[in-house]
Amino acid sequence: xxxxxxxxxxxxxxxxxxxxxxxxxxxxxxxxxxxxxxxxxxxxxxxxxxxxxxxxxxxxxxxxxxxxxxxxxxxxxxxxxxxxxxxxxxxxxxxxxxxxx
Length: 101
Fold this sequence. Notes:
Layout: E1 13-18, E2 24-29, E3 33-40, E4 45-52, H1 53-62, H2 65-71, H3 79-100
């Protein structure tokens, strides 16, 4: 499994550890990934995602997984996020059509 956030695309970064004597050694900076179940109001089901803690805070700030995905442009989402966004948008349209009929 890749070390990548499903919703933000945040991934591993490479840099240097710098000692007091200015000696540099390679270091990998890992994102703080968490496996979570998030409830989608539009889909009316749980979605299992592996996301960074920063993404989880952003989702809470925006108002839920549905609002986060609908607000974020598809160009900024990784492929898994785009698939989730399409599922949510399709369910939202079906819900609006059934309410109008």
